[in-house]
Design goal:
8-stranded mixed sheet, 16% strand, 978 residues, 6-stranded parallel sheet, elongated, 41% helix
């Protein structure tokens, strides 16, 4: 196809705009063909020409893609796929590839035989000048100088690599390792390798060009055809495996790759990184000035092939050139496949003539994209050859092969293998006449390749790109102000990227980030959150107390965010504050938060412990009363009586009256302020006491509204006292309810024995069995017995339990509903019972004497069983004093043991006087059934004499038993479930 058109060799270093010049020259002609070394570059040039001239006149032809419109004028193709036509213009890029061991023979053939009718351009390196001058007559040379300078910058660590750098490796493992390190330290990188599909490489390059990442990790695939915005090229090695052996890079190869640094007039640098050795000064000078030894020998293969037999075809392919500049290169893959298939008996028998030899040669030229092994590739080619001899590859067989590949899940290696497999079928579908319904299979294989390419791009991006860190780092390096936003959930986004959460005044970076990413997120997050901290501090300082709270472990909350904790202060009622504010927020923010929290807890203590603080500040309390008030304040409003018995004894009535004005109640078991037994003061009391005691784990307050709670032996008794409960047996009873129970017990004969009345059960909310256990815990002996149940025509109306004062915790909502439901159920049962009895009575009255018969033996037994009295369980309680140190005997009825001057039930006589306001000594003597104590009162008789009778201060009450069918008894049983 030689012609008399002008032939020009445009030579020079990289970054000279040679490809752009070739496009301009081609468009100046009516028709043209340009051959490019890479499918990726071919697609880039095709897109540029389509923008200028439209898609209707531009064709794209590669081994795996074919776009040919009807009115095509300009052909863009890979060098191997250049059409055999006679256009006005021909251009071949990267002509120095004539020396490539694998593909060189194709470029050499185009150099020798491909010409345009009017103009031919060879684009490449200056190293090709002598060879082109010797092989192409009448050629004209143009040298194009580099637009920018290229300078050696030495060795740099990956962590110190400047932005817009390309790091070059020569194995997949090296590329992945460097990409992973760049991701952790720099936020991510794009990956470009020859094994990637063009679509995947395009996506990775586009991501780099768009500035989403500032680093590119690649093989020597970037050495030609890719026009990238690279400022620095770093070599991680200076040797590579070329398919046969590991060898050192040629100087012109290093220069070709390093030349990608610099963009148009912007200067570029090159260097080494990692374990790569420092380049020699002579090599550095050659690269900087683009002076390399000329290429002495081109790779050549005979293009005049003979297709008579396979032997003649092999011989023609191995024929010598007869020219000293043209030599045979290494055995190509297609020739090796031809020799393998030629020796197979099944193939040898099927090759009968020149047509079969030509078809076999076309099949052998299918590239080995899979790269499994030569025998595997030969087996696939033999199968394809067999199908083609019978007409075409069956659609069902091809569909199964494609379907096995069409899976987009898996890791990078799995997706890369599937891409290699589908590229084989994409190439096959592009051959004319090889498959049935060519348009369908070209589109189908292309679609599968695109899906796999997109999946591989996504996998590479997910593994080697942290978009968030990359964006933040780039903004920080550019010293731009970062825009941070915090939503109502506390999620922090910086420049639209999720960075972490702002919990109160502490920034929590994303936990999915690695340690390196976390450091970057901290830096970016704090840089952007500095104004947010000030805004949030102002909002917090002006927030009402209703938005703040404390936890039972001493934490301080603002809504759902922990912003501090209570610490031990000067005394229990004045705790200190430790704030949770990051150091990066500043000391002024921390101090502002601390002051607001201190105001909150001080007001909380003042509100909940107002009676206690008022008593502490009362100057009217003097002497023993003031000392006792100090003890109460120190104990946060609750003192077990047995621990301060002597102090209480020393207080006279005037002192006690002063204390009572502040709400102090002198109970039989506890000295306390009833207002401080409410749930809120109890919860705060436990926290303050735990802080003062220096506990690591604070006791939690019981659920509000419970009269009794379980008594766990492992829990210290002091916890129960501070919670407002007094342990007694298996249960602990609320202090104020215990004192009400003690008031009822004083009216009973504790020596002779007494039974529990409904008032006692109602106060405690217990069943009879639970009440017995409670009484035993209080120091009483409980004697269990059974007796016949007394039936009455109508159930007696039980007296309601005494109403509790507002501060004494009335029934909870659950208990009120339970009582109402129990009473309704009991009334229904009683009504049904009366109805049944009325019907039975009516039936008995209507029965005539003649109809009456004598009952049988069984009926008589049944009647006897029905007439048998029902039994009920009851308990008799007596005071059973324990050894010293145990519970003391409670006070008896107000007339028992008259004349005794000692304490009864742990109370002094003065305490009984407190309960009889306005009662004179004569009244007491009359009530006690004797003379005033002193001279004529009863005295203790001699040993063995009968004990004097005792009298009660009120008339005897008729004995009244609890009806087990009453709603209060049923309620007491149900309350056992607590």
């Amino acid at each position: 196809m030689l012609s008399k058109g002008r032939v020009t060799a445009v030579l020079g270093p990289t970054n000279t705009g040679k490809t752009h010049y070739a496009i301009e020259r081609m468009l100046a002609h009516r028709t043209g063909v340009i051959g490019l070394p890479l499918r990726l570059l071919a697609r880039e040039v095709y897109d540029r020409i389509v923008k200028m001239r439209g898609p209707s006149v531009v064709a794209l032809v590669t081994g795996e893609e074919r776009i040919v419109p009807e009115r095509v004028q300009y052909w863009v193709a890979t060098t191997e796929a250049m059409p055999d036509i006679a256009p006005d213009f021909v251009a071949i890029d990267e002509i120095q590839l004539c020396a490539d061991p694998e593909r060189g023979h194709v470029f050499t053939d185009r150099l020798l035989h491909m010409r345009g009718l009017h103009e031919t351009l060879f684009l490449g390196s200056d190293t090709m000048r002598p060879a082109i001058a010797a092989l192409v007559p009448d050629v004209q040379f143009q040298r194009r100088e580099r637009f920018s300078t290229l300078t050696w910058s030495g060795s740099k660590k990956l962590s110190r690599m400047p932005a817009r750098s390309a790091i070059v490796g020569f194995s997949v493992d090296d590329v992945y390792a460097m990409a992973e390190l760049i991701r952790r330290q720099k936020g991510g990188c794009a990956v470009v390798m020859g094994a990637l599909s063009p679509r995947t490489r395009n996506a990775q390059v586009a991501m780099y060009q768009a500035g989403e990442v500032d680093y590119l990790v690649a093989t020597d695939a970037i050495g030609m055809g890719l026009n990238l915005d690279i400022r620095h090229v770093a070599f991680s090695a200076t040797h590579k495996f070329d398919g046969r052996r590991v060898r050192e890079l040629f100087p012109h190869e290093i220069g070709q790759i390093a030349g990608r640094a610099g963009r148009h007039t912007e200067a570029g640098t090159f260097g080494v990184t990692g374990d790569a050795r420092i380049l020699d000064e002579g090599l550095i000078d050659a690269i900087e000035n683009h002076r390399f030894a000329p290429i002495q020998r081109l790779v050549w293969r005979n293009a005049a092939l003979e297709f008579g037999t396979t032997e003649r075809l092999v011989s023609s392919l191995e024929a010598p050139s007869g020219h000293e500049l043209l030599g045979r290169g290494r055995e190509a893959d297609d020739l090796a496949a031809l020799k393998t298939l030629r020796d197979l008996p099944e193939i040898r028998d099927r090759v009968q003539g020149g047509r079969d030899v030509r078809l076999l040669w076309d099949v052998c030229r299918v590239p080995d994209f899979r790269g499994i092994s030569a025998s595997e590739h030969a087996g696939l080619l033999a199968r394809i050859f067999g199908f083609l001899q019978e007409g075409a590859i069956p659609s069902d067989w091809l569909a199964r092969a494609v379907q096995r590949i069409d899976r987009t899940h898996g890791d990078i290696d799995a997706l890369s293998k599937r891409l290699a497999y589908i590229r084989t079928w994409t190439y096959v579908a592009q051959r004319t006449g090889w498959v049935q319904d060519e348009s369908h299979w070209r589109g189908e294989t292309r679609a599968v390749e695109d899906r796999l390419s997109d999946a591989l791009h996504a996998a590479l991006t997910q593994r080697f790109v942290d978009r968030r860190t990359s964006v933040l780092l780039r903004r920080l390096n550019q010293k731009e102000s970062l825009v941070a936003e915090v939503n109502d959930k506390g999620e922090v986004t910086v420049e639209g990227e999720f960075a972490g959460r702002l919990e109160g005044f502490r920034f929590r970076p994303d936990q999915t980030a690695t340690a390196d990413e976390a450091r970057m997120l901290n830096r970016a997050g704090y840089e952007a959150l500095r104004p947010e901290f000030h805004l949030r501090a102002d909002r917090f300082y002006n927030a009402p107390d209703t938005e703040l709270d404390f936890t039972e472990q001493g934490g301080l909350m603002w809504g759902d965010a922990a912003i501090g904790k209570l610490v031990k202060g000067s005394d229990a009622l004045h705790p200190g504050i430790e704030v949770f504010v990051d150091d990066e927020a500043g000391s002024d923010i921390a101090e502002k938060v601390r002051r607001r929290l201190q105001h909150f807890i001080d007001r909380k203590v003042a509100a909940l412990f107002e009676p206690l603080l008022a008593m502490q500040k009362d100057d009217g309390l003097t002497g023993l009363a003031r000392g006792f008030a100090f003890r109460l304040v120190e104990a946060l409003g609750i003192l077990p009586r047995e621990g301060v018995a002597n102090e209480v004894k020393e207080l006279d009535q005037e002192m006690r009256g002063l204390l009572r004005k502040h709400g102090v109640r002198f109970g039989q078991f506890t000295i306390f302020l009833p207002a401080l037994l409410k749930p809120a003061p109890t919860r705060l009391r436990l926290v303050l006491w735990s802080l003062a005691e220096g506990l690591d784990e604070f006791p939690e307050s019981p659920p509000p509204g419970l009269v009794t709670i379980p008594h766990i032996p492992e829990v210290p008794q002091g916890y129960y006292t501070l919670s407002g409960y007094h342990p007694a047996g298996d249960r602990a009873i609320r202090i104020d309810m215990l004192e009400r129970l003690a008031d009822l017990l004083r009216t009973q004969d504790t020596r002779g024995g007494f039974e529990a009345n409904p008032d006692m059960l109602s106060i405690t909310g217990m069943t009879l069995e639970q009440f017995a256990a409670l009484m035993q815990g209080l120091g009483y002996a409980a004697e269990k017995g059974e007796r016949a149940k007394v039936k009455t025509a109508e159930a007696p109306v039980a007296e309601p339990a005494p109403e509790a004062e507002p501060s004494d915790a009335p029934l909870t909502e659950e208990e009120s509903v339970l009582a109402a439901e129990t009473r309704a159920k009991w009334e229904t049962e009683q009504a049904e019972k009366r109805r049944i009895e009325a019907e039975a009575a009516a039936a008995e009255a209507a029965e005539t004497p003649e109809q009456a018969t004598e009952p049988t033996g069984d009926e008589a037994a049944a009647d006897a069983a029905e007439d048998a009295p029902e039994t009920e369980v009851f308990y008799t309680f007596r005071w059973a004093p324990r050894p010293r140190g145990g519970n003391r005997r409670p006070q008896q009825a107000q007339g028992q043991e008259a004349g005794q001057g000692r304490r009864q039930g742990g109370q002094p006589r003065g305490e009984r006087a407190e309960r009889r306001s306005g009662e004179t000594g004569g009244d007491r003597a009359a009530r006690d059934g004797g003379k005033p104590r002193g001279k004529g009162g009863p005295k203790k008789g001699p040993k063995g004499a009968p004990k004097p009778k005792t009298f009660s201060s009120r008339p005897e009450r008729p004995e009244r038993r609890i009806d087990p069918d009453s709603p209060f008894a049923i309620l007491a049983t149900l309350k056992d479930k607590k």
